Each structure stands twice: as C-alpha cells, then as structure tokens.
What does this fold into?
Amino acid sequence: MVATWLIIVIVVVVILIIYIYNSLIKLRVRVKNAWAQIDVQLKRRYDLIPNLVNAVKGYMKHEKGVLEEVTKARTSLMSGSMKSKAKASNQITEALKSIFAVAENYPNLKASENFKQLQEELSGTESKIAYARQFYNDSVMAFNEATQVFPKNLFAKIFGFHKEDFFGADEKEKKNVKVEF
Amino acid sequence: MGIYEEIASNKRRSYLLVFFFLVFVIFIGYVVGFFYGSGYFGIGMALFIGIIYFLFSYYGGANAILAMTKAKEAKKPQYTYLINTVEGISIAAGLSKPPKVYVIEDSALNAFATGRDPEHSSVTVTTGLMEKLNKLELEGVIAHEISHIKNFDIRVMMLAAVMVGMTVLLSDFLLRSFLWGSHGRKKEGGNLTVIFIVVGLVLAILAPLIGEAIKLAISRKREYLADASGALLTRYPKGLADALRKIRNDPDPLVDHANKATAHLFISTPFRQSKRSFIKNLFSTHPPIDDRIKRLEKM
It folds into this structure.
C-alpha cells in the first residue's frame, strides 16, 4: 500500500518537473527567437547604411561629420556584447535622424527617387527594430518571471536557467518607440 | 496569459465547427440516399463530396476571398511603407513569418485579415485607408488585423464561411429538388413528397440555427479582443481609436467588392449603416464602433 502511494507521488512529481522544465525551455526558446529577430533587423540596417551614405555623399559636402558618425557607429554594431550592440544601435538611430534632418535642406536630394526609397526602407527597419526589441523584452520579462516564481525558481536553479538581460530598456527609449523621420 | 487561452479556445472552436459540419453532411447524405434506395450509400457520397468541398475551401478559401474582394498583392516599391508596417507589427506579435499584404483599390476605409493559420495568412487594406490614416492610425488598424491572425480568429472565420456556404448550397439543392419533385411528379406523390417537405422544413429551421451558432463562434467579442491585443502590440490604443473614428465619420463606408459572405471579415462593417436598433445589434457582425472607441480610450 505504501509502495503504491510512493509510486504515485513519484510519478506525479516527475510529471510536474517535466512540465516545469518544458515550460521554461519554451520561454527561453522564445527569447532566443526574439533576439534573432532583432539581429536580422540590425543586420538589415547595417546593409542599408552604405547605400544611404553613397546616395547622400555627393550632396552633403559640408556635413561630412554626420556621415562619419553613422559609419563609425555602424562598424561598432556588428561585434561585442548585447549591451554594446544596444548602445551602438541607439547611436545609429540618432545619427540617421540627423542625416535625415540635414537632408531637409537639400531639395534635390529629397526629390531623388533612390533617396526616398532608402529613407522609406530605413525608417521601416528602424520601427522593425523597435518592435523586435519590444517583443524581445516582453519575452525576457515572461521568462524572467517564470524563473522567479515558486516553485519554478527552484527548478530553474537546478536546471541552470538564468535571468536574461533586457535590450536597451531604459524608460526614455521606450517612449521613443515611434520613430518618425 | 489571456491570449494563449484565447488561442486554445479558438482551436477547440475550430474542431467543433468541423464536427458539426461532418454531422450535417452525414445527415443530409443519409436523407438523400434514403430516397435512392440506400442511406449508407448516400452517407458515403455526401462524405466524399463534403470532404472534397471542405479541403478545397479550407486550403483555397483565402485565395477565393482575396479574389472576391478584388485584392491585389502589394509590391515594393509602391507599397514599401505598408509592407514595412505589416512586417514590423508581425515582429512585435512574434509571428514566425509576416503575413502577405494585399490592397483593394477603393476609396472606402476598411481592412481585413484572412488565412487558415499564421503561417498562411494575409492582411488586406483599402487604398483609401492608406491615404486617409496617419502612421499611428494605420499601425493601430494593422495591429488589430494581426491580432486576428495571432489569435487564430482567421481560422474560425474561414471554417465558418465554409460551413455557411455548404449549408446554403445543400438546403438550396434539397429545396429545389423538393419544388421540382412536387411539380413533375404530382401523381406519384405520397411518401416522397412528404419526406421532402419534412426535410425542407427541417433545413429551413436548421440553416438559421447554424448561422446563429457561427455568429456566436465569430462573436463580436472577437472584435473587442482584437482591439485590445492590437493596442498591446502598438502600446498606443489611441491610434486605433482615432482610426475607428475616421472610419465612422467617412461618408463612403461601402467597399464595392464586399458581400454578405465576406462582411464579417472586415474591421468595420462594409455596408452602409442605417440607424442601429436593438434587433440589428443582435444580428450584426460588428459591435457598435462608438463602443469600441470608448473602450480603447479607457485603456
């Protein structure tokens, strides 16, 4: 009799552990996928920037500084930790903003079909990065929450699930989600 | 986790709809087969036809809807902005693949989503919507549509459309053969006619009931839910609220290519709105737009 009960309890506990483990794994996979999404968009912007610089170079002879800034931020983007990526990404956002602001002074440039398309693509990518970051941070929050509530936190420790970092999540930026060039 | 429960319950609803569909087909098959000597043969035939019809409309339904509404696929560079908006919000929703984007050349303000699952889905907007809404409002509408996709509302709607189509087709077929039969074979009469009358009556009762069940399945609650989860995607409920206000005030709410079969898909009813009455509310496919705006503004 005792043995039967023992077996039942063990089976229930094992099922529970499997369930908890799987739910944590699912959440972590979501975080990984969300991060991949950010990376895809960062890469896309990375590829678009040289085109923009080329399109703009001929017109903006007096504003070389702005272009250098964006090029510099671009090179620092593809390497380093998530924190440095987030920082570089924000720098690029700012630098692009000033390029497009300066472009307002060049009617010929603004009228160019190529420039218009690049601007459209870049502002689209910019908001995709913002959305990808939003989804990533949502996923991280769900995952971190799961690793902290009882009893999941016990198993999270045993199985080695660690808290994930948010991607450049300071409040000021969050309000900046809508980027309009 | 409201949204994940909602997805699960929508999947259950889908199975239920398929189950009703099968029961209905078997019933009709048996009745028809009964006349021609073998009820079981009738069931076999009906299942065969029913399943083929089902597969065709389940896998081809989205394309049929897009063709019916004369929607054309949006291409870059003309629609770069729209495509980017849809892709961005589907990233925010965590869809593994962005839906396809279509446009309807129409000055009315409207949009819909369709497909059988998030991997095979599409978002359609009218050109009028693109012209008259600003960025934030357009994002609000797109987020509403993407929520329909993520919540699997599109699958329930698709199955519902398949069922309504099949019901109408079958009742029509039976009622016609009843009329024709009573005309041509008055003298043979007897059992045949009586049974046809009974079946005709049963169907006449059944069809609206099924229609009602479908209305419950695609209940207006889904619109509120898509509004709410859409607002969660853009983090800006005011965008959709403003868009809905513009849609309400637009003098031309009529999408030329919408009909009763596609009406329930659109973000706001594509027909001209006369005064709302209680009865009309009871049977309308969409909740009153003012109520939706009010709820969004409270978020």
In short: The interface with chain B takes residues 30, 33-34, 37, 41, 117, 120-121, 123-125, 127-128, 130-132, 134-135, 139, 177-178, 180 of chain A (CB under 8 Å). Helices of chain A lie at 2-57, 64-77, 82-103, 107-111, 113-148, 152-158, 171-175.
